[in-house]
Amino acid sequence: MSNLNTSRASTRVRSFFRMIRTSKGLTLGFIIVAFFLLTSIAVVVSGLLGARITPYDPIKQFVGPAMSGPSWSHLFGTDKLGRDVFSEIISAMPTDIGVSLAVVSVAFIAGGLIGSIAAFKGGLFDETLMRVTDLFFALPALVLALVIAVILGPGTLNMTFVLMIIWWPTYARLARGETLKVAHQNYIEAARFSGLGSIRILFRHVLPNIFFILLVYATLDVGTVVLVFSSLSYLGLAVTPPNVDWGQMVNLYQDNLLSAPWLPLFPGFIIALGVIGFSVFGDGLRDALELR
Amino acid sequence: MASEEQPILQVENLKKYFPLSEGFNPFSRGGKKNVKAVDGVSFSLPRKKTTAVVGESGSGKTTLARTVTLADIATSGKILFEGAEISRKKKSRKKELYRNMQFVFQDPDSSLDPRAKVKVSISEPLRGLVGGTKSAVEEQVFQSLDAVGLPREYAERYPASLSGGEKQRVAIARAIVTHPKLVILDEPTSALDASVQAQILKLLLDLQEQYSLSYMLITHNIAVARYLSDFILVMYAGNIAEYGPTKAVLAKPRHPYTIAMIASAPEPDPWKRNLLSVEIKGEVPSAINPPSGCKFHPRCPYAEKICTEVNPPLEEIAPGHFVACHFVEKTA
Amino acid sequence: MDELLKVDGLTVEYNTSLGRAKALDNASLTIEQNKLICVVGESGCGKSTLALAIMGLLPRGVARTTTGSIGYHSTDLNSLDEDKRREYRGTEIGMIFQEPLTSLNPVYRVGDQIAEAILVRVAREQGMKDTAARSDVMQKTYNSRSAAKPSRFRIRRRMPEALRKEVIEALKLVRMPDPEEIIGRYPFELSGGMRQRVMIAMALAEKPSLLVADEPTTALDVTTQAQVLKLMRELMKDVNASILLITHDMAVAAQVADQIVVMYAGDIVEDASVFDLFSEPLHPYTKGLLSCIPTGTKDDAELVPIKGRLPDNRNLPVGCKFAARCPYVMDVCTKKRPGLIEAKPGHKVACFLFGQ
User: Fold this and answer.
1) What is the pLDDT at residue A6?
2) Which chain B residue is nearest to residue A208, measuring alpha carbons?
């Protein structure tokens, strides 16, 4: 990796790709993540433009014979209402990826800030914030989801908010732990001797040093959110039929494992691919960034 | 303009206590317990000279350094920088102080932000305390790197690619970039190899001459103190045991603790095996429940009744040479 | 003088994420009975690796011994499998480490830990291999029905009197004040110097012939260091053992060593008696190291640092590793690596200035 890092954007982008290529894991993870992201964007964009990139309309029933296995015309087969499984999976991509990225991003930013500020200030402020965090930790996801569904109604957006509320405490705890480690380092003191106030020190020295640890955790977390979101869909609280979601498909068709295995296996496979892809990417990212 | 004679730093009866239990404890038996890290210390640092503060663990030397730089707030006592009291500085005045007083830490690895380039670390005091245009700041960073003997290309490097000695040089470059008058060095070479230590010691001497710096050197290494310092302050359990010109104190120490400490310092000379004939009993006392009277009395071969009752004050036994001992004549 | 341990041509490599590093490069040295040998060097010179190799404690999977042997009483320790190796470790060859706080188990009392060391020795003396059969040892040796593992003793209640006496004797051997009181304490209740004494007591409980000490006093205050070093020299006589002391501090070596071995970047560059080394250092690195030690005030002696920096063990130069920093460098130095030769009787050096 080049040590003469100038701040010109093009060199940054180039060195990013060079770094990706340094490890096979990182490259693989990046490819998978890129695939997911690009496909999601493609689906959304094409939807907005009124076009469609999937071979069939995912919610249209009986585009092929029901319960038929994988074939050239239906890559992943069809479900019991004759819908094309491949199209369903692709069209669910923006929802699943979008929701999990949104939840993780918000949790990362909110939790990260709360945890690091608490640890940095210390004292009563720290104690109070941590007790608030504990409170949110204690909220049971499903119960909260049901309550919100009753009050505000079900739906993807509402459930996304539920997940955001549940998810940030872990990041707060993580950020707090890492900040405590950093806060004792001499360079923080040196920054005080340079006349920097606490806020500037937090943003200039603390956050950059905890950012990557949180980021790696976040990439590993993306898959987990997908799974939790899918269980909410299964309960009918999030994605409701006729729309589809991967987890929902897995849960719905698990009884067909022996009779029509393509039904639960393909969505399950795509979930696994997503989880693995993001984790490998996160892992590789951490290794690559450590060796600066 | 401050006169040449005026000491750069004066400390009067400084005390720093750390309360033992923080937080709310309903079961505490009342009666606040304190860690008496610094327990009544008075001295002055002469300009353009190096004063070594020597002691072992629990002596309070690091706490003293931190209190003097206002990293910790003193419990009581006065600190005067160039004659002006700084003990109760407000934030805005602190910046002014730090332009003239900087700190070099012991551990080179944690002194530098691993995510910041060398030039960012070195320029931080400039950006925070002095200001200036980007190019002016950059030029000063380069001059600092020159002064510590590092190539200018190092400005773009990250700390991970530097050796321990080089990191310490960067830390020193950062400390002198605002051209301070006083630099406080906390064990600057303890974490370094012998050959690197020698390079840094030489560098510190050169810089002192080049920039007319005053140094306060915290160390437990007598050899380093002897080499670098003009004056030496020996601390024991939060008090000053002995204080005076380095040559005089090390040649003829008068406080029983100083005598024992110097006798324990290994000489690189196999024909002078002083170490094996040293007899010093006991351990450094607890800072929470220090011994009554003179804190060294449990280990002192000359201790008598008064030593268990009264903590001896510093007395001048020769010009500029002070000792805190009731029976200093016994070590003559 | 009898030979106790002979290291011959030992090379150890580490697998790091950035390549293979040669921590020890064809190192050879001999430890005689009842002598204190100091291995002196700076970071990366391989002194800790040497200690670990002798103990057989090199991190597995990461470190590999590629050549050489460690001969102890005509057995090559490196050729033994782990089980056999273990018999030597702790019994014949003991080790103490730099940081006593992490070497002692914080949740067990100090007396318990020393007792455990004693029991291991007793078990081995009785020919018992399986150290889990503690109850048997207790039964046989101490006539005690206590099946409890020593770590669960309540010192004042269940430890058999004979064992307790041995523990106190062990502490008295290391000149610990108030041993009866100390055995009931936890490591965190003791000071650094006392903890180090406990470590020494545990190592000596096995009655080893060789004690390997890796920077045992670096973390201690100077007055405590003096006490511990003095103790170690006295113990050598009392217990009839040799000590291999690893240190970076030449002054410490001057004070306690009989023999000094100087290492640089994995090589042994000089090996001589302490008096020969200090009166006539031969290797340019040794000379440089000695002139680095501040001895007077800044006005007295000129401190001459060694220019340059330590080499990277992953990227070693061809030829002598010190050539780049050597004030006496010759042409041959950058091409060939000097071997360790006996330049004077009992004084070995690896430098082309002295022939070969």
Assistant:
1) 43
2) B115
Choose among C331, C323, C238, C316: nearest CA to C283: C323
How confident is the model over B199-210, as pLDDT tens digits?
Answer: 999 999 999 999
Asked if the model's pLDDT at residue C155 lies above 50, the reply is: no
Q: What parts of chain B have a pLDDT lower than 70?
A: 1-4, 21-32, 88-92, 278
Residue A158, pLDDT score: 85
Q: What percent of chain C has pLDDT over 90?
A: 18
The mean per-residue pLDDT over the stretch C147-164 comes to: 59
What residues have CB less than 8 Å from C343, skipping those under 6 apart?
C282, C349, C354, C355
Closest approach of B24 to chain A, Cα-based (Å): 11
**CA closest to B163 among chain C residues:** C309
Check residue A11 and give its pLDDT.
60
Q: Which residues face B318 on adjacent strands?
A: B321
CA distances from B122 to A209, B141, B167, B172 (A): 18, 6, 11, 9
pLDDT (mean) for C274-302: 88
How would you classify residue B40: left for phi > 0, otherwise alpha for psi between -120 and 50, otherwise beta?
Answer: left
Asked whether the beta carbons of residue A190 and residue B105 sit closer than 8 angstroms, the reply is yes
pLDDT digits (tens, 9 = 90+) for C203-239: 888 788 899 999 888 878 888 888 889 888 888 888 8
**Can the peptide bond before residue C338 be classed as cis, meaning omega within 30 degrees of 0?**
no
Return the half-sphere exposure (C-beta side, CA atoms, 13 A cut-off) of residue B180. 30
- φ, ψ of residue C111 to 5 degrees: the values are -60, -40
Q: Are B245 and B317 in contact (CB under 8 A)?
A: no
Residue carrying structure tokens 């496979």 = A269
Which pLDDT does position C1 carry in this prediction? 56
Residue-wise DSSP of chain A? --S-----HHHHHHHHHHHHHH-HHHHHHHHHHHHHHHHHHHHHHHHHTT---SSS-TT-TTSS-TT----SSSTT-B-TT--BHHHHHHHHHHHHHHHHHHHHHHHHHHHHHHHHHHHHH-HHHHHHHHHHHHHHHHS-HHHHHHHHHHHH--SHHHHHHHHHHHHHHHHHHHHHHHHHHHHTSHHHHHHHHTT--HHHHIIIIIHHHHHHHHHHHHHHHHHHHHHHHHHHHHTTSSS-TTS--HHHHHHHHGGGGTTSTHHHHHHHHHHHHHHHHHHHHHHHHHHHHHT-
Yes or no: say if B14 and B41 are a contact pair by the CB < 8 Å rule. yes
CB atoms within 10 A of CB B165: 23
**Would you tell me which residues 164-223 of chain B have a C-beta closer than 8 angstroms to some C-beta of chain A?**
171, 174
Paired tokens of A275: 């989880």
Average pLDDT over chain A, rounded to whole? 82
* Residue contact B57–C254, C-beta within 8 A: no
User: Is pLDDT above 60 for A177?
Assistant: yes
Question: How close B212 comes to chain C (CA, Å)?
Answer: 16
Phi, psi (deg, nearest 5) at residue C99? -105, 100
Between A3 and A205, the more confident residue is: A205
When comparing pLDDT for C313 and C332, which is higher? C332
User: Distance between CA B95 and CA B109 in Å, rounded?
Assistant: 25
Residue A5's pLDDT is 39
B154–A contact, CB cutoff 8 A: no
- Residue B168: the pLDDT is 95
Identify the residue whose tokens are 């000490």.
Answer: C213
Q: How far apart are CA C191 and CA C14, in angstroms?
A: 35
CA dihedral C163, C169, C175, C179 (to 10 degrees): 50
Look at residue B156 in the predicted model and tell me its pLDDT: 92
Residue B101's DSSP bridge partners are: B182
* Secondary structure (3-state) at C63: strand
Determine the 3-state secondary structure of B212 from DSSP.
Answer: coil
Classify residue C340 by its DSSP letter.
Answer: P
Is the ipTM higher than 0.95? The answer is no
Spatial contact of B115 and A185, defined as CB atoms under 8 Å apart: no
